[in-house]
Design goal:
This protein is an alpha+beta fold and 465 residues long. Helices cover 19% and strands 29% of the residues. The chain contains eight helices and 24 strands. A four-stranded antiparallel β-sheet has the order 2-21-20-19, with no helix packed on it. Strands 3-4-5-6 form a four-stranded antiparallel β-sheet, with no helix packed on it. Helix 2 runs antiparallel to helix 3.
Length: 465
């Protein structure tokens, strides 16, 4: 390897800006995919290997500390951050992370000193991040220090409620209270909107006018939706009102609980709708979500024995189609409030909505973090722009982990609840060659450093032969 020296950077082929990542090797890319996909145990192993092999060591050390915070292990993050804050030109937000980690470990005096250094560097905490730290949610505070998604409106929303988007067979399936689906449509008493049906829209060039009711016998005069699907696209689970006309409230109105139903894709239509055995007219069972192997059903329910309003449960799906005993996901996920709209990504990460955890507004979207034993040890608020001051729910992420949809009643929407598309901000990628300005020969062993305008180093790499 040639000695480091000053060179002229003549050509950089391609840059995507995201100050949190600076990609070079496959191992670095792997680590970032793991971290951004909430696979923090795997990310820790990859960052350890990067540090051992001196691959972008300073950056890997910073991310290693972050990963331990995500796993709710501030005692392991503390000695790592102690090294990080001594790095030359370290991003000053790590003064804040170190201060908060010191506080979490009971060293309040040192925490105040590093908080002062953070503010002396010209920083000011955002109100959102400050709120997370104030409530001892280090993971959400650190995770949300850098924006990770962009969000856009979709053009198939209506003036009614549209939510719960799910992509299957290149089409977007969602629940909507637009009234075209049934010849006789009942109006929901609470908001005077038509009851929900399941609709389909094309992902490309989809529009409000082209969204159509799902084919088959799923839609009725009751509420239907949202829905989830098996990996092969042949089995559908969806929410529907149970019909129980014998139960009335004190005002003589019919009480209808919500249950989960299934349907099969036969001859191009969704048919054979039937309730699952977990339904009960005494409580709600709704918002189904399937594991990628189709062996577990996640759902929300206010069945007796929970922690609060509605909790998230999981039940095994047996080979014969019956269901095992529902298991409450526990106090890390469930609160005295309401947890609902679970979504299980292909990589095994559980996303859900809650109004009981620390959030930005009413109902926020969270991701569950698991340890090496696959136990849920923490939940992380996905932050802005996924969450807002209003209700945010119905998270869906594609198999590749880059694009998805959420639902929200945030300001600026077309109807009550609207669907929004989001894209994860990609890692920064730097490609090209570095040439010597004198003889125009490629330079090996050159150190390329990415910095902010104030000189803070974000990452670096060494050019190969």
């Amino acid at each position: 390897m040639k000695t480091m020296r000053h060179i002229s950077l003549l050509f950089i082929a391609f840059i995507l800006i995201n100050a949190s990542v600076f990609g070079q090797t496959q191992r670095e890319k792997k680590a970032e995919r793991q971290f951004n996909g909430f696979s923090f145990v795997s990310a820790i192993d990859t960052y350890d290997r990067m540090i051992e092999k001196d691959i972008n060591k300073d950056y890997a050390l910073r991310k290693l500390g972050d990963a331990y915070i995500m796993l709710r292990e501030p005692e392991k993050a503390l000695p790592i951050y102690a090294q990080v804050v001594q790095q030359p030109n370290v991003p000053s937000e790590y003064f804040l992370y170190y201060a908060q980690t010191l506080r979490a470990n009971g060293d309040y005096d040192a925490s105040k000193e590093w908080m002062k250094k953070y503010k002396d560097a010209g920083n000011k905490e955002s109100s959102i991040v400050k709120n997370f730290f104030k409530n001892n949610d280090l993971a959400s505070g650190i995770f949300n220090s850098v924006e990770k998604n962009t969000i856009n409106k979709v053009n198939f929303n209506s003036k009614y409620n549209d939510f719960g988007a799910y992509v299957i067979n290149q089409q977007l399936v969602f629940a909507s209270s637009r009234h075209e689906a049934a010849a006789i449509k009942r109006v929901y008493a609470w908001d005077k909107q038509p009851l929900l049906d399941v609709y389909v829209a094309n992902i490309e060039n989809g529009s409000n006018e082209k969204a159509t009711p799902l084919s088959g016998d799923v839609n009725t005069a009751l509420h239907e939706g949202p829905a989830t699907f098996s990996a092969d696209g042949l089995k559908m689970y969806f929410s529907r009102n149970n019909s129980d006309q014998e139960k009335m409230d004190l005002n003589g109105r019919e009480i209808r609980q919500v249950g989960i139903y299934t349907a099969d894709f036969v001859d191009g239509k969704w048919q054979n709708s039937k309730p699952i055995s977990l339904n009960n007219t005494a409580y709600i069972v709704y918002h189904p979500a399937l594991s990628s192997d189709g062996k577990k059903l996640y759902f929300s329910s206010d069945m007796p024995g929970g922690y609060g309003g509605t909790d998230i449960y999981v039940s095994d799906i047996n080979v014969d189609g019956t269901f095992g005993k529902p298991i409450n996901l526990g106090a890390v996920v469930n609160t005295e409030g309401n947890e609902a709209f679970p979504f299980l990504h292909k990589d095994g990460v559980l996303y859900f909505s809650s109004d009981g955890h620390i959030g930005l507004g009413l109902m926020d979207i969270f991701a569950a973090v698991t340890n090496e034993n696959n136990e849920i040890v923490n939940v992380i608020n996905l932050g802005e722009p996924i969450n807002s001051k209003k209700d945010d729910f119905g998270y869906y992420l594609d198999d590749e982990g880059f694009k998805g949809y959420i639902s929200s009643n945030r300001k600026g929407g077309l109807g009550g609840d609207d669907i929004y598309a989001f894209t994860r901000i990609p890692p920064l990628t730097l490609k090209g060659q570095i040439f010597d300005a004198v003889n125009n020969e490629p330079v090996s062993g050159a150190k390329v450093i990415l910095t902010r305008e104030n000189g803070e180093e974000l990452a670096y790499f060494i050019t190969g032969e």
